[in-house]
């Protein structure tokens, strides 16, 4: 019986093996294509601030006798250089994550705590933009890397401030729902057009280039946030605001470790 079955079994195994190999090669091809596109985007995005820096440096000589124009050129060079540095840091962060060099230090953590810290770190900035940060926290214990959580929360709250309007609010809340911790970031800002939502988490995507330059945005923040959330078994979605509401809402969910008694 073994002798009869064996060639069939071997044929099946060979079939599975070749399917596996072609799946892997498709994955590798796709990953190369993604990397090629990413490198293309990086080079393109780096060119804009570099071109400005070169242009303003050329103007320094011309503006030598005009302290006001000189100061303006200096400030523009500084702003573009800061933007470039931020991009380099974010690209390095993203590539470290892709190469699995990234050390996740998972620990039991009540999300209220890093949320409180992120809010208090950004309250000063909110006030300077005439905004307020409101909170509504319930205990929710998850397993996650604290530093990554801080990065995620700071980014989302900062976006809620950057893309807001004077007198507006950023509302941050956390609670448990079933076996998940739900963290929401709602702002009363300018909102995100429906057609832009699908691309929002792609690297370098900005709703409008002008808007991104004014706010010093790089379009890398949300792609980093999504990778960090997913590395911790979480998910992030953008919620459609109610028809009479303006602004944006991001919902982050993580599996909880201990069901909260107060949930
Ligand atoms: P950036 O560094 O440009 O802010 P992000 O990846 O964080 O990059 O965001 C991508 C784009 O999504 C931004 O350029 C902005 O247009 C839009 N965006 C992100 N968050 C918000 C928000 N809370 N309200 C409105 N627009 C937002």
Can you put this structure into words, describing what you see?
- This protein is of the alpha+beta class and 263 residues long.
- It has six helices and seven strands, in the order ααβαββαββααββ.
- Strands 1, 2, 3, 4, 5, 6 and 7 form a seven-stranded mixed β-sheet that branches.
- Strand 6 (235-239) and strand 7 form a beta hairpin.
- Helix 1 (2-62) packs antiparallel against helix 2 and helix 4 runs antiparallel to helix 6.
- The N and C termini lie far apart (60 Å).
- The site of adenosine-5'-diphosphate has 21 residues, from helix 4, helix 5 and helix 6.
- Residues 1-33 form the HAMP domain.
- One of its GO terms (molecular function) is protein histidine kinase activity.
- It is a multi-pass membrane protein.
- It is found in: Cell membrane.
Keywords:
single chain, 263 residues, alpha+beta, seven-stranded mixed beta sheet, 6 helices, globular, binds adenosine-5'-diphosphate, phosphoprotein
Helical content class: 55-70%
Structural class: alpha+beta
User: How many strands in all?
Assistant: 7
Shape descriptor:
globular
Main location: membrane
EC number: 2.7.13.3
Domain Histidine kinase: 41-258
GO molecular function, one term: protein histidine kinase activity
């Amino acid at each position: 019986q073994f002798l009869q079955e064996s060639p069939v079994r071997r044929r099946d195994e060979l079939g599975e093996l070749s399917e596996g190999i072609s799946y892997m090669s498709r994955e590798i091809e796709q990953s190369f294509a993604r990397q090629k596109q990413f490198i293309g985007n990086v080079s393109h995005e780096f060119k804009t601030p570099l071109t400005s820096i070169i242009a303003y440096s050329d103007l320094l000589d011309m503006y030598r006798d005009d302290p006001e124009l000189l100061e303006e050129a200096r400030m523009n060079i500084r702003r573009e250089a800061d933007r470039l540095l931020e991009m380099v840091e974010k690209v390095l962060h993203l590539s470290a994550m892709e190469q699995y060099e990234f050390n996740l230090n998972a620990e039991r953590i009540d999300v209220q705590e890093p949320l409180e810290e992120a809010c208090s770190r950004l309250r000063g900035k909110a006030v300077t933009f005439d905004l307020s940060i409101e909170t509504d926290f319930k205990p929710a214990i998850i397993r996650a890397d604290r530093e990554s959580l801080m990065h995620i929360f700071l980014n989302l709250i900062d976006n809620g401030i950057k893309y807001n309007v004077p007198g507006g609010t950023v509302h941050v809340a956390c609670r448990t729902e079933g076996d998940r911790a739900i963290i929401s970031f709602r702002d009363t800002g300018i909102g995100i057009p429906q057609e832009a939502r699908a691309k929002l988490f792609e690297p370098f995507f900005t709703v409008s280039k002008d808007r991104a330059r004014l706010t010093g945005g790089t379009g890398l923040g949300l792609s980093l946030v999504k990778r960090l959330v997913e590395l911790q078994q979480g998910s992030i979605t953008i919620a459609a605001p109610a028809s009479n509401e303006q602004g944006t809402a991001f919902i982050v969910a993580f599996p909880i470790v201990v069901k909260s008694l107060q949930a």
